[in-house]
Amino acid sequence: MKPVRKAVFPVAGLGTRFLPATKAIPKEMITLVDRPLIQYAIEEAREAGIEQMIFVTGRGKGALEDHFDISFELETTMAARGKSLDVLESTRTEPGSVISVRQQEPLGLGHAVWCARNIVGDEPFAVFLPDEVMVGQPNCMAQMVQAYEKVGGNVVAVLEVPPSETHRYGVVVPGADDGKLVEIKGLVEKPPQGTAPSNLMLPGRYILQPEVMRALDAHEKGAGGEIQLTDAMAKLIGTQPFHGYRFDGERHDCGEKVGFVIANLALALRREDIGPQVRAYIADL
Ligand code: UTP
Predict the structure, then answer these.
(1) Could you report the per-residue pLDDT of 124-151, keeping only the tens digit for each?
(2) What is the band of 1 on the pLDDT scale with cuts at 50, 70, 90?
(3) pLDDT in tens, 27-46
């Protein structure tokens, strides 16, 4: 079984649910407490043992690459003023470990992943949706890699949501279920309300086999007229093992406003440096 060494971060979406914040800055650069969303995803990948990060970007997304580069002027000035550069440590990357490819048009998540095919090559890879922030110890992808090492094939994170919300997500047709790993017998993207095969949805962490790229070659449009990753994954079912993994931890949907505000509170309250002050303020409110 080949290890998971590469991760794809599709970051070429327009972020329309978060306008006007996302007019001139990428959604993935919005700050959660004190670091941009993309940094949480990169840290999760690193802790899960992933070495090669592949950004699928679009026009106006240069800030994402700059964030993981050296900022010469900033660092020189801080050093000259005797300020510690430790605060920038988590933004440092090995030369060559972050690669960007362009998705010229936002044709859908499946199309974005397909744009990374030549860099992914013939090995399993992870996909992270950076606007979904996962909190867990070990982190969500690290838990998934452990599960992948047992069952191989494709392993995707799954989460239960109220039936009234399933129409917003990719939803699983479940098979055998041991409470942690659930066999996936089918997948439906954004099922119309009342038709979902279960309330198990895909919150944006995937370990996939490279064959999914061949399914994406067809460029078939699905829900919303977009090329959907869910539809391509569904084609692998029956040809390769396919499991959902219920991870231990919390998920925050930072792609929409309420989820983002809650994530800020949840993460700030956990922090030793600022948690007590934030807690006191909320208690006061
Ligand atoms: P979303 O469904 O959240 O779309 O995409 P979006 O464009 O970012 O945001 P809204 O819905 O307009 O508010 C999920 C992930 O897939 C990426 C996004 O950047 C996000 O990380 N994506 C989506 C692409 O990279 N390309 C696409 O064509 C679509």
Answers:
(1) 999 999 999 999 999 999 999 999 999 9
(2) confident
(3) 999 999 999 999 999 999 99
Dist. CA 3–CA 238, nearest whole Å: 22
- Give the rounded percent of residues in the chain with a pLDDT score beyond 70: 100
What structural domains and CATH numbers belong to the chain?
6-284 (3.90.550.10)
Nearest 10 degrees: Cα torsion 16, 22, 23, 25: -140
List pocket residues of ligand 1, CB cut-off 6 Å. Answer: 10-18, 27, 56, 103, 106-109, 111-112, 129-131, 255
**Cis ω before 20 (30° cut-off from 0):** yes
- Looking at the CA of residue 18, tell me the nearest atom of ligand 1: 13
| Distance separating alpha carbons of residues 164 and 241, to the nearest angstrom | 29
pLDDT value of residue 195: 94
